[in-house]
Protein 1
Amino acid sequence: MIGGRFRGPARSGNGGYTAGALAAVAGELTEGAWPATAVRLRLPPPLDVPMDVVLDGDVVVATHEGEVVARASAGADPVAVPPVPAGEARAAEAGYPGLASHPFPTCFSCGPGREPGDGLRIFPGPVTELDGRSRVAATWTPHPSAEGVPVVWAALDCAGAWAADVGERPMVLGSITARVDALPLVGAEHVVVGQDRGRDGRKSFTATSIYDPSGQLVAAAEHVWITVDPAVFN
């Protein structure tokens, strides 16, 4: 079940959190056999309702009322986005476009409409481009009320969308492949970095990484986003 707190759009689960929750169950069902997990979201994740999760061959499937919501499988190791110094990431937050206009303002990961300690309030602003692709960064200090693998996946989520300019081109998560090397330290300032990696029609391709205060990689992800009309999800 995805609780209402963990929404992305107003009426459905945050894609990263939902995928992380399924990845956590998949890790238990497969006894941690997948170093990286790929999750494809087939429907907007419903909120506050039970979902059935089963291992079907080499795929873990989440369903609601007979419909497939998401599928998890073994994934290729994501290529990390190079780090940005914490001071630069902190300064970039002032340029976060979502402070002025946001398609999903109460998103658990990046919504400015969430209070500290409720949402993650990761506000990625632009930093120096890398390989000719736009890049964003923000700091994130994990709160005691939000811990665990699904929260790490949520933190890996929206910086990718902002690197792909979700403010001007609203999109939702279609799929995410992530690897979590360690759980972030509660109360410690981490850095979240996102990079645009191209487009194909309605699809946008991005990557994100989280670094701990010592500069060590905590987790990395690659995403496919689908351009949508936000009114359909809000």
Note: Residues 41 and 70 are 4 Å apart (CA to CA).
Protein 2
Amino acid sequence: MLGSGMGKPVVHWEFWSKDPEKVSDFYAEVFDWKIQFMPELNYRLVTTGGEGGIDGGIMKPEEGPIPGNMAFYIDVEDLAAYREKIVAAGGSIIVEEMEVPGVGSFSLFADPEGRVLGIWKQG
């Protein structure tokens, strides 16, 4: 049964920015986060350091329906099943499913108050 057994931890976060270079410089300077620019993905991978911390990314969204300015990604074992649960519980699906080649897949959803989050399935 979905939702029983293993937890569903937040495993990744993203800041969606109009100026990802400036935002990256800010967090690197203030918190000493290590930020690696991956030009082939136009993505900045963030390592926050420390025990039990959650790493993330900073990106400039492509044109499209991505509301908000950040998201958390929750680890699940079945994206389609969780999309059904989200809709049944009053949420809505923003992005059905996208693959990150060689890494995994994700969906974006809005909760009943409009907060946008992601669900993530390891590849």
Note: The chain has a mean pLDDT of 91.
Protein 3
Amino acid sequence: MEQTEQRFMQAFKGQFWGVLRWEQLDTLWDAIRADVEGGWYIYALSEKVPDMPASREQVQHFIQEIDHLLRQEHAEDYCGIVYADDLKKPQFVKIFDPEQLGSVCGSSGKTILPGWLLCKVKPTYLSDVLPATQSRKRWWRRLFN
């Protein structure tokens, strides 16, 4: 495994904190928006691994759209489907798809992969374990095409 893959997998398997309340999600988005350094990769696991970090505008657009999708499709009074390595200064964020939750915590014995990642380390291909629905593929392509 090359060094980039090792860094990514170490970050991916690291410790994460759950964003339990919608207000916490707002705070997390604000922290990402305030990150003047940028360098965020946006990776939909059902799509090609990005070669380059997203532009500031792409990150803003993604946050706006994914926030809308999560609040619309995860019709709960709590969030609980977004996880970050640090809630105040995030470097890695896992966003689970409300359409394919299963048991995110892994108690079912199956690992559920997130639908999307926002991360500062260049991602590597994970697998085809979680094929996206056609509606998700259309949603993703509408964002960046």
Note: The radius of gyration is 14 Å.
Protein 4
Amino acid sequence: MKCCYMDVRAFSDPALFERIFREIPWQKRRDRILRCKFEKDRLLCLGADYLLMRFLREETHLEPEIFILEEGPHGKPFLTTHPGLHFNLSHSGNYAALAGGTVPCGIDVEKTRVNYDKIAQRFFTETERKALAFQDTDAARNEAFLRIWTRKESYLKLSGVGLSRDLLSFNVLPDAPEDAVFYEHALPDHLLTVCISKEDVMKGSAFKGFEECFLYKRAGTCYYC
């Protein structure tokens, strides 16, 4: 299991955006990008799909067009052609991210927020709100908010139920849920969190770490690194 991420502002170049967009073999995901009203959302969606194509190439040495993508009842995408290969996607702010490997996973990346009190009051448990209030600086409270929020999101995405489960039904602080393990990576003004089941970790599914991906444009050709 590993996580890769990228700064999607690399796709601000229209020619580069169009070239990668044409590579996406899944019509539903291409349509999703086209439905985005704002450029920043188009860049984020394209970044997630680029990471997915890159992941599939690296893991299988096959081209993405042979893979059939479907979505579960709560929107979590999966591969019908390769059920033993798991992945999860997230994007926020300037970053898109993917976690993938041979076991189910959940991932969430979130950008630092200025106003998060309403979110905390609505979606955090009393224990989590107390942990937030205990912080004595704005920076510490923001860090604590991102840790709680990304843990909750990645935990729900691991199960595939998404926000159909009440966020108030479980705590992620001070300890993780008994059935989950979290891995965190700080980015400029963002936090990235990956969640894997404790059972899979105990069986030997090690987390290999976080890798930043870059996309270079050289003589009109895109190179994947």
Note: The radius of gyration is 18 Å.
